[in-house]
Design goal:
The chain has about 170 residues and is an alpha+beta fold. The chain is about 45% helix and about 15% strand.
């Protein structure tokens, strides 16, 4: 059975999977933990950034969970490569200087790129300013609505064919 087939509902989605005990941190538990940390220990202040050195974490769903509790998110939309983040490079600037949260998030993505560019260009890592996520979500809703209208009014599967062609890497 495939991993995604194993997950049966949104409550099953998560990160930090532990093979030994079959445990993981669900999205709901992640949100609960962030709420507790920010309210109990940070007096309601947001965390500067949350970084995921894990696969498939840079999604709108995760961003929406983080948005009330953090200013930035760093993560990959796809599978992370090799050994993940090159922490030795990522932490290097702190030996000589301080970085703002935004500068640090940009530095993480650049260090990841520098680490893997000689191996492949098939990787993703992005830094997202979470207060901008709502505007992106509204734009995606508009595009989705337009696509649904186009699909409902298509002739001879024309829109379906175009969508399939746009997904092809052989264009």
């Amino acid at each position: 059975i495939g991993f995604l087939d194993y997950l049966k509902s949104e409550e099953d989605r998560g990160v930090c999977f532990g093979d030994t005990y079959g445990t993981y941190l669900t999205n709901q538990k992640l949100e609960y933990a962030l709420k507790e940390v920010t309210s109990r220990f940070l007096n309601g202040k947001k965390i500067d950034f949350i970084g995921f050195d894990a696969c498939l974490m840079s999604m709108i769903e995760i961003g929406n969970i983080l948005r009330p509790y953090a200013n930035y998110m760093v993560g990959s939309q796809e599978i992370e490569l090799g050994t993940g983040w090159p922490y030795h490079t990522i932490l290097e600037p702190f030996k000589t200087q301080a970085l703002s949260p935004e500068e640090f998030c940009k530095h993480i993505t650049k260090a990841y790129h520098e680490n893997y560019k000689s191996i492949t260009y098939d990787y993703t890592l992005s830094a997202i300013q979470l207060n901008k996520l709502e505007a992106l979500e509204q734009s995606l809703d508009t595009v989705a609505s337009l696509l649904l209208t186009a699909l409902a009014n298509q002739q001879n599967n024309s829109v379906s064919r175009l969508i399939r062609a746009s997904k092809s890497r052989r264009l």
